[in-house]
């Protein structure tokens, strides 16, 4: 008989925690899951899912405009923000019910409340101490908003998903994927959008051609990008919120949203007190097996601040369960993990950027820019950009990058090719599907002329 109440206590019922708990329960472990908010975590309740639903909803504005070029007469179309939010909320309720049911089906004990570690094997929840052989920390991340005068007037992406009405003018601070995605949502639905970035480019970490292309396309849609800017203060006035920049410029807006990054959600849950080492950002430091500095405490997902993507958290949860509850040791390979940004137009990439590749390879670059077939009739001024980064010595494709409609769907397939070590010659020998945008990835024959590597700066 075990000396502990459970084989596994999972703190956090997000993507990683649920996957780990479900599999551990399936493999016979006695599992308890603690969640202080909603089952499904950031992705399902405050991130990927509701945001993608809003992105889809906002796309109809362009669809109606584009339809005219194909002979359709669209009159009287109007958007009801409240109806969309209500439909989104109904779907989230359905999904949360499914997550709870999946955990109950494997015999997991569900505990609603805040879990706090008191030692290497004990968690306190709702004033009760429970013990386990292993503890998994899967509490994710939380929006980080810097301190400045007027901070109390801003919202994060969490609140943006639940606004009772759409703001006529919104200021969005940040140049990452959350910022550009919400900029696209509000802009498409008719809001005037000012995007404030402290550097000269959007999407740090993506390929420079991707960053430049997306910025150009966003500005075509009417989004105003304010580069190299910092907000000095925000004040509430009779006209709305007065946003003052460091150089003296002022904008009046109905809403100010900060999307300046996320931090591991580790504060106040007893990790340092239990001996768990955190890095400077507050992330749990783990080894390849997701084990922390304490033998019995593990962590997966955004709380470790490795690659903060939902599918990564899910796979880390799976690896943990397989390793420790199914006698099947598995460690996640973090190379060539594809990612997408559901901006308008969307971005997707897998593998190395040009700048990353140039640090250790001599490269050939293949770039295609074209007007999508759809817009030859719609008249929309939008262009697609595709890019391949190829190792000159081995012909291996090191990176695939795209800005344009269906980019995430297309790059997902190319991610398989990169995992298999595909070469440019194999891309070239693949017969494309015509007429599609995707075929361009297998028909780019002429490399771009050599250029100064410094031009490929991040």
Q: Find the structural class using helix and strand composition.
A: alpha/beta
Any idea what the shape is?
globular
* Estimated helix fraction: 25-40%
- The percent range for strand residues is 15-25%
Distance between the termini: 56 Å
The CATH topology assignment of the largest domain is: FAD/NAD(P)-binding domain
Overall pLDDT, averaged? 96
Describe the structure.
With 458 residues, this protein is of the alpha/beta class. The protein has three domains: 6-142 and 263-325, FAD/NAD(P)-binding domain (3-Layer(bba) Sandwich), CATH 3.50.50; 151-260, FAD/NAD(P)-binding domain, CATH 3.50.50.60; 339-448, 2-Layer Sandwich (Enolase-like, domain 1), CATH 3.30.390. The chain is built from twelve helices and 21 strands. The strands form five sheets. Strands 1, 2, 3, 4, 5, 6 and 16 form a seven-stranded mixed beta sheet that branches. Strands 17-18-21-20-19 form a five-stranded antiparallel beta sheet, with helices on both faces. The longest helix has 25 residues, at 81-105. It is globular. The N and C termini lie far apart (56 Å).
């Amino acid at each position: 008989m075990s000396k502990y109440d459970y084989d596994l206590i999972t703190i956090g019922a997000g993507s990683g925690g649920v996957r780990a708990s479900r599999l551990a329960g399936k493999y016979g472990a006695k599992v308890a899951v603690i969640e202080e908010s909603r089952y499904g975590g950031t992705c399902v309740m405050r991130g990927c899912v509701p945001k993608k639903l809003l992105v889809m909803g906002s796309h109809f504005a362009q669809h109606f405009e584009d339809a005219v070029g194909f002979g359709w007469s669209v009159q009287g179309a109007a958007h009801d923000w409240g109806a969309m939010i209500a439909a989104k909320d109904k779907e989230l309720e359905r999904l949360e019910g499914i997550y709870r049911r999946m955990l109950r089906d494997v015999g997991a004990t569900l505990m609603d409340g805040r879990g706090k570690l008191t030692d290497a094997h004990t968690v306190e929840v709702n004033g009760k101490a429970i013990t386990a052989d292993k503890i998994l920390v899967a509490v994710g991340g939380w929006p980080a908003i810097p301190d400045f005068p007027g901070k109390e007037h801003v919202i994060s992406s969490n609140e943006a998903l639940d606004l009772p009405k759409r703001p006529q003018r919104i200021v969005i601070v940040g140049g990452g994927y959350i910022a550009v995605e919400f900029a696209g949502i509000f802009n498409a639905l008719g809001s005037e959008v000012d995007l404030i970035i402290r550097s000269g480019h959007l999407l740090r970490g993506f390929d420079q051609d991707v960053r430049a292309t997306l910025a150009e396309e966003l500005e075509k849609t009417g989004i105003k990008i304010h580069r190299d800017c910092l907000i000095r203060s925000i004040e509430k006035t009779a006209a709305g919120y007065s946003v003052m920049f460091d150089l003296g410029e002022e904008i009046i807006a109905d809403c100010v949203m900060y999307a300046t990054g996320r931090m591991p959600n580790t504060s106040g849950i007893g990790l340092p007190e239990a001996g768990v080492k955190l890095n400077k950002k507050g992330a749990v430091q783990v080894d390849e097996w997701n084990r922390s500095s304490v033998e019995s405490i593990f962590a997966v997902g955004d709380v470790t601040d490795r690659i903060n993507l939902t599918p990564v958290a899910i796979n880390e949860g799976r690896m943990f369960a397989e390793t420790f509850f199914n006698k099947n040791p598995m460690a996640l390979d973090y190379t060539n993990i594809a990612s997408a940004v559901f901006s308008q137009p969307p971005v997707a990439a897998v593998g190395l950027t040009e700048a990353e590749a140039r640090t250790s390879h001599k490269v050939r670059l293949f770039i295609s820019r074209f007007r999508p077939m759809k817009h030859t009739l719609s008249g929309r001024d939008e262009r697609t950009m595709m890019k391949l980064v190829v190792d000159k010595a081995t012909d291996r494709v090191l990176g695939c990058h795209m800005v344009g409609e269906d980019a995430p769907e297309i790059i997902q397939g190319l991610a398989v090719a990169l995992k298999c070590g595909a070469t440019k010659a194999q891309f070239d020998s693949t017969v494309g599907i015509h007429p599609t945008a995707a075929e361009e990835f297998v028909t780019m024959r002429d490399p771009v002329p050599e250029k100064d590597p410094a031009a490929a700066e991040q």
